[in-house]
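pipeline: protein-struct stage 2 | run 1193 | Acyl-coenzyme A thioesterase PaaI-like protein
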Amino acid sequence: MKSWLFKKGTRIRPLLNLWPPFLFTGIRVAELSADFRYCRVELKNRPWTKNVNGTQFGGSLFAMTDPIYSLMLMGLVGKRFHVWDRSAKVHFEKPGSGKVVAEFHVTEGLLRDIEQATATGEKYLPEVVTDIKDNQGDLVARVERTLYIRLKRHYRPEL
């Protein structure tokens, strides 16, 4: 089942939108390219997504970015790798008072770095940054995420 899901980004996108942490917080994966190289996630400002000040709840802003890079990379590097989030931090820059959007890009350079850094079986901890912007294109928050990527044991070279 998992390998079928990760053949195309268009298969997993509808399921992500039904995933309770996204569905019940108003987070929506608006676009996930079939090749897993691009994703756009949106959060509309609804009564249940507002904080006490009437702006976007910070936890929802952070949650918008949570599984996205890991899932994109699972689709790109396949079943040979463990791909997890290791750590993350968020920098709030401006209150989000309307719909906010986060865009994710996996570059050829990142994929090349993953292959090179993990070729001997070592873990690789790349850092990715996601900007969350409002409708005017202003920065609302920046999320820095460290990923954990490593060949699964039976794919590691014999040392």
